[in-house]
Design goal:
By secondary structure, the chain is of the alpha/beta class. It folds into 3 domains: about 70 residues, no CATH class; about 80 residues, no CATH class; about 210 residues, Nucleotidyltransferase, domain 5 (2-Layer Sandwich). The chain has 16 helices and 12 strands. Strands 4, 5, 6, 7, 8, 9, 10, 11 and 12 form a 9-stranded mixed β-sheet that branches. It has a 3-stranded mixed β-sheet with strand order 1-2-3. A hairpin with a 7-residue loop joins strand 11 and strand 12. Helix 2 crosses helix 4, helix 8 packs across helix 9 and helix 11 packs parallel to helix 13. The longest helix is centred in the first third of the chain and has 15 residues. It is elongated. The protein starts with 13 loop residues before the first helix and ends in a 5-residue tail after the last strand. This is Rhodopirellula transposase family protein. GO terms for molecular function: nucleic acid binding. InterPro entries: RNaseH_sf, Transposase_36. Pfam families: DDE_Tnp_ISAZ013.
Length: about 400
């Protein structure tokens, strides 16, 4: 038989050395170092350099294992020290709440509703700067790389910039966003109830494809022409509690439908919230039915302020930027929730909407079968009385309106 090949250690064969190296690779930390030290003392006279030549183990690790056995003290590595460490959101809940409020204020929904992910204009560096401006410092504010991970895992991601897409802005766009940010959440004691409202595109009822996937019946009508049953979704998001209120109207999208739905939402809110509230702050896009110059809408909002006994503060988003309105996030979730479902009747529509969740909370859903007349406007004389009740921002008169209640 041919002689066994020579190894770095005359006591062990190549196969035995391979077995010991395999055994060491299955261990980690101090357990691995202790095993390597034992093998070094048994086969290499406790010499770290010779152990490295024999087994291929790093001599620094072998030497550390030998020192640990000699002193009886075990070194704790960085991995072990940080094992099970709580996330920044858990160790700094106040700063985390402030960060998520910032990210929410700077976020937009994907306009195609193809994803429920929110895109934010808020960079990690800007988030750190704003947290520091709020008084958070030292260990309360994470490093930029950590901040980026925190924003990502909470669903706020930077969006890729598209070069070929022109940006549509009006001269007041930046000032409008700055005004919303300045007014948003300035009181944290419940004195201001922050609401976001908007109407979504009309939903056709029938055997129509919604572009998604299903495990059930996957055959839909080849077109949606001639649809007779349609519903207009109107939503209100309570930004403070996370509760969503959805109303599906069977008539027309008008100012009266919007304000009537808003009144029902107010009646459904907890009494404690309404009692503590002094001002109802409403964010909306400047759509034709609810804009800052729509006469019937402004008349109805004056009536709403009188009805609730609360000051109403209307804050509008600029044109082409309604996707930043917080309620748009909820529309994205709803669209993804029932995507692929054939909404064959009103009951199916209602039940699917009820099972949607926003921040772990199911929405409060109802139908409105009231018939609304289109094109209702006020005369100039009637509008003068309404206008006298409006306190318009001097710099942004169409985008920031305050309405104080009149009693009796």
């Amino acid at each position: 038989m041919p002689p066994e090949p020579q190894t770095a250690n005359p006591i062990l064969s190549e196969s035995q050395i391979a077995d010991l190296k395999l055994a060491a690779s299955k261990m980690s930390g101090s357990t691995r170092r202790a095993f390597q030290a034992d093998m070094s003392r048994k086969y290499c006279a406790g010499n770290a350099r010779q152990t490295e030549r024999c087994f291929g183990w790093g001599r620094e690790g072998v030497q550390l294992g030998l020192e640990e056995q000699r002193s009886g003290m075990v070194c704790v590595g960085a991995q072990a020290a940080y094992c099970g460490q709580k996330r920044w959101e858990e160790t700094q809940p106040e700063a985390a709440a402030a960060l998520l409020a910032l990210a929410e204020a700077h976020s937009q929904q994907d306009p195609t509703f193809r994803s429920s992910i929110a895109y934010t204009r808020l960079t990690a560096a800007e988030a750190i700067r704003q947290l520091q401006a709020m008084g958070f410092s030292g260990g309360q504010v994470p490093a930029p790389s950590t901040m980026a991970r925190i924003l990502n895992r909470n669903g706020y991601r930077l969006r890729k910039v598209e070069k070929a897409k022109p940006q549509k802005k009006i001269p007041e766009t930046d000032a409008i966003f700055a005004n919303i940010q300045a007014n948003d959440g300035q009181f944290a004691d419940g004195a201001v109830k922050r609401l976001s409202m908007d109407c979504k595109a009309t939903v056709n009822i029938g055997d129509y494809s919604r572009g998604g996937k299903t495990r059930g019946d996957n055959k839909a009508a080849d077109h949606e022409m001639g649809c007779k049953e349609k519903y207009i979704p109107f939503g209100v998001l309570d930004e403070d509690s996370g509760q969503v209120y959805l109303t599906f109207g069977s008539s027309s999208k008008t100012s009266d439908f919007i304000v009537d739905s808003l009144c029902r939402v107010w009646e459904q809110m907890p009494s404690a919230d309404k009692d503590a509230c002094q001002c109802i702050q409403i964010k909306a896009d400047n759509g034709p039915e609810s804009s800052g110059i729509r006469t019937q809408f402004l008349k109805r909002m004056v009536e709403f302020a009188n009805h609730t006994g609360k000051t109403v503060h209307l804050l509008y988003y600029p044109p082409y930027h309604s996707k930043y309105n917080p309620i748009e996030r909820c529309w994205g979730i709803l669209e993804q929730h029932w995507n692929g479902t054939q909404l064959k009747d009103a009951e199916t529509l209602l039940e699917w909407a009820k099972t949607m969740t926003w921040k772990g909370i199911n929405p409060m859903v109802e139908f409105s079968h009231k018939v609304y007349e289109k094109g209702v406007t006020l005369s100039k004389k009637a509008m003068e009385a309404v206008e006298a009740r409006l306190e318009r921002n001097a710099a942004l008169p169409k985008w920031d309106i305050l309405i104080r209640p009149v009693f009796g």
